[in-house]
Amino acid sequence: MGFPRGWLKMLSKLLLLAILPAAVTSRSIAQTAPADVPAVPAQASLRPVEAPLAGFVRVDKNTLGLTLAKQKLLLYDFEFNGDTVPTDKLHLRQISPGVFEITSIAYTVGEWHVRIRDAADYYGLGEHSDVLNHARTVVHNVSLTGPAQHEGAVGSSTSKPVPFFMSTTGYGMWFNVTGDATFDLNASSEADIVVDADAEKLRIVLFTGPEFAKILDAFTAQAGRSVLPPYWAFAPWLGGEFEGEARLQET
């Protein structure tokens, strides 16, 4: 049984009349919206709710606190290109037991700055020929080779920088950035470590120990473990760069 002639045409007109008011209303609202209201989805500004982390908290708008075996480690005065970065703009996460992560992204390369309340002995930061304990020194985490490597204090530069150190306070800290970084380890402040790093994304990974072996094991689990060299690599060696070609040939 078919519809009477003209019914389909009348039905299409009724549907059109029902749709037009809604479309016109939506268009009118869009045209009358204030010019300073950004045309972005409402959910774009919402950040995921972070689960509370046991032992790693926002102390206030400028300070983070990590509970160690004997004390609380404070990280504060986060800045990017001289502008304060409040702690609610930092993302906190626990990667594994005793391993915590701080991240923030600026969408442009600039200088990150942070202070860590600590006064101890510090070990790590790659290969260096001057000292083992970097306390009260400034270490530049930049790779230098050739003549530039030997400018300044002997052994203070390196061709193998690693932005990771361990503190006798009982923690390890890895600034996972690929740009230049400077570690002021109580040289300018007896109470604070000051770190400046060039990067777009800030990523700091903290390892609670307190034993160095435990910290180092946790760090290499994240960064990648070294391959054991062959036995001859541990024998004495000479390099022409240091001994001179004549001495190398004589040997």
Structural class, from secondary structure content? alpha+beta
Shape: globular
Q: Using DSSP, what is the number of strands?
A: 12
Number of helices: 4
Rounded radius of gyration (Å): 29 Å
Specify the helix fraction band: 10-25%
Q: Report the order of strands and helices.
A: HEEEEEEEEEEEEHHH
Strand content: 25-35%
Low-confidence stretches: 14-46
Major sheet attributes: 12 strands, antiparallel
The chain-level mean pLDDT equals 79
Please give the alpha-carbon distance between the first and last residues.
108 Å
Write the layout of secondary structure elements.
Blueprint: H1 7-32, E1 56-58, E2 63-67, E3 72-80, E4 83-84, E5 91-96, E6 99-117, E7 122-124, E8 137-141, E9 164-167, E10 171-175, E11 181-185, E12 192-208, H2 212-223, H3 240-243, H4 245-250
Antiparallel strand pairs: 1-2, 2-3, 3-4, 3-6, 5-6, 6-12, 7-9, 8-11, 9-10, 10-12, 11-12
